[in-house]
Amino acid sequence: MVMSTTTQDVAATVTADRSSTPAVAHSAGASYGTTVAATARRNLLQFFRTPQTLMMGTIQGAMFLFLFRYVFGYAISTRGGLSYVDWMVPGFLATVMLWTGMGGAAGVAEESATGVFDRFRSLPIPRSAVMVGRSVADGGLVAWGIFTTAIIGFAVGFRVHGSFLGFLGAFALMLFAGYAVSWVFIVLGLFSANAQAAQGMGMLVIPFSFISSANVPVASMPGWMQPFAANQPVSVLINAVRCLMQGGPGIVGIGHTTTYWVVLSIVWYVAITLVFATIATRRFSRTR
Prior knowledge:
Layout: H1 2-15, H2 32-49, H3 51-72, H4 84-113, H5 116-121, H6 127-155, H7 164-190, H8 195-202, H9 207-210, H10 226-231, H11 233-246, H12 249-252, H13 258-285
Helix pairs in contact: 1-2, 2-6, 3-4, 3-6, 4-6, 4-7, 4-8, 4-11, 6-7, 6-13, 7-8, 7-11, 7-13, 11-13
C-alpha cells in the first residue's frame, strides 16, 4: 500500500504542469524505477501535447534529405558500388539524433529556468533518476525522428542491399547512439540560462554532422580535415550503419570489417553515455 501511494504521488508530481505546485511525495520516497518511468512519461506526454515538437523535426529532416538527394546528389560521386541515395540515406539517418536532440536541450533549459527542477530536488526521490527519465524520453523522440526519416528515405528511392537482420541491427545501434547523445544535450541544457541559449549551444554539435562521412566521402575533404572526419564518433556510427544496411564495407567503399565499426561505435557511445550522464547528474544534484 505504501509503494502504491508513493507511485501515485510521484506520478502526480512529474505529470503536473510546470506552473502548478507539485504534489508532496510520500515520506518513504519513491523507487528508482518508479521515478524514471514517471519522469519519462511526463516528458513524453509533453512531446505529444505539443505536436510541433514532433512535426518540426520531421519536416526539417525531410527538407535536408530532399536537398542532398535532388540538389547535391547528382554532383557527388561515391566509392563502392552504391548509388548516391543508397549511400547517403544511412548516413543521414545516423545524424538525425543531432538535429532532434537540440529540442531536448531547450526543454531542459526551460524547466531549469522555470523552477521545475528545483521542485524535483525538493522531493524524496533519486535525483539521478530524474535525468535518466529525461534521457529515455529524449531517446524516444530520437527514435521517432529516425523512423519518420527512414520512411521519407524509402520514398525518395533508398533501398537496402544487406540482410533484414543487418537492417534491424543498424536501427538498434542508432537508437543506442541517440540515447547516448541525448545526454550531451541534457548537459548543454543544464548549463544554459534559458531555452534560447540552449538552442545556440546545441548548434555546437552540428559540425559533427557535416564534417563526417554522412553526405560526402571523407576522401573528398581537405587533407587536414580528413583525420578528424574519419575518426570522430558520428563517422564511426555512420560507417557501422552503412555496413549493416548495405552488406559490408566493400560495397560502401570503406576499410576494416562490419564488426570493427559496430564494436568501435558501441565503445564510443558507451563512453559518451558514462561521461555526460555523470556530468548531468552532478549538475542537476547541485542545489541552486
